[in-house]
Fold:
Amino acid sequence: MNSLSLSFKTAVTGLVTLALLASAQSLLASPQSLPAETSSSWENEAAAGVSLAKGNSDNLSYNLHLLSAYEFDNIEAKLGADWHYAENNDVKNTDSFKAFGEYRYLLNDRAYLGTNASYLVDDITDIDYRIDLGVVAGYYLIKNKDQKLSFETGPGYVWQDQADITDDYMTLRFALRYEQQLAQRSKLWFSSIYTPAADDFSDYLLSAEAGIDTAINDHWAIRTAIRYQYDSTPAPDRQSGDTLLTVGLRYALGSYPEKDAPNGKIPDPSDSGPNSGPEAIQDDWTSTAALTLSMADGNSDNLNTTASYDAALRRDAGEFFFTGTYSYAEADSTASADSLITRTQFNKLLSERTYLGMGLGLLRDDIADIDYRITPAVTLGHYFIKEDNMTLSFEVGPGYTFEKVGGITDDYFSIVAGEKFVWEINKRISLKQSLTGHINPSETDDYNLVADIALDTDLTKHLSWRIAASWSFDNTPAADRDKDDITLSSGIAVKF
Structure:
């Protein structure tokens, strides 16, 4: 591995570790350490989601959402911005930015007059700019502490440059918005905006979005949203419809109202009982399934998904572990990632800390041209740390490798070494990290490494938010393939 790739790997690993530790530090803060709520009527929030794969699979996607909302007496106002970006193999396939603003003046408890403005740039749909200004009259069909449903309509005007053709025209606006406070920890929203040209209703724009926020604490929440946009008259060689699914984290300087929460605070899942926190280390079965997903369909055609499952059984006499991860990504209907990694291991405890392990690993990676790599091994291991909330073990031993890489089959004796760290940080947060290496002693430059790290934060007793990173390195890859692959992801984990 050259110094440049090593520096890159080191930098990414360092950044990921810092991000995980920073997340843990912020989430470890007690309710008393959170900023005091101000009397300001402004509420500000930011939401972001990211997925990264670099190496033989080269994918990057991220989204950013900013919003400031103001409510006081008979005035309601919003200012916000959205940015979505994705690329595959250094080719950009999503790049859009939208800034928007709204102002409402309440005539009474239900009726209002307002104005709205937006600015849109979308490279993929060939929109250099689209400016939309309008005035509306609206009415709250439902308005209480848990629900809001409003409808508005009015005239507007559009200026745009699409496919190097400038145009301007008068429009009509029809908008429907809905918000539902589902519980103390969750909020659902939906919006739909229909803007036809005033002189031709067959020429129209349609935008619909739905999402849900699930609170982690008073300020942090998980955001899952899906957006659909339709342009009845797209630019040449462009599709009319675009769909985007995103998952990410949201941070609010002023959290959304929790009407029934005591003292206005989000209940901590660890307060519901002594067994409600994470059970990363326990003498029984534990298992977790996790899924991360991002999707764009239309002019931007992307799919990134990672599914994983891990299980552990601990007894006085022995331990059993299983992990499995499947990753898939595609752009423009062409697969850019397709891999499966599994590992099964049984440890016979020779003493409280020393064990004899028997393991079997399987790797398949279509993009790296690995049809299979099967690695049985026998190892001797030792727990250097074995506490109720933390374990650290090292193991080493002989193994064998059967593989088909680049169409060439091979088998050879190998030396296997591994390290595993598990830390139950508190009742809500757990960290898992592992490193495994295989080396061919007859050809010491023939070796491979796999490293994983994951931070789980409990939302409920059975649901967690996972931030994870993985790195794999093959010093003798198939022809025309990269040596290392890096993946960063976040998503939902379900504990059984």
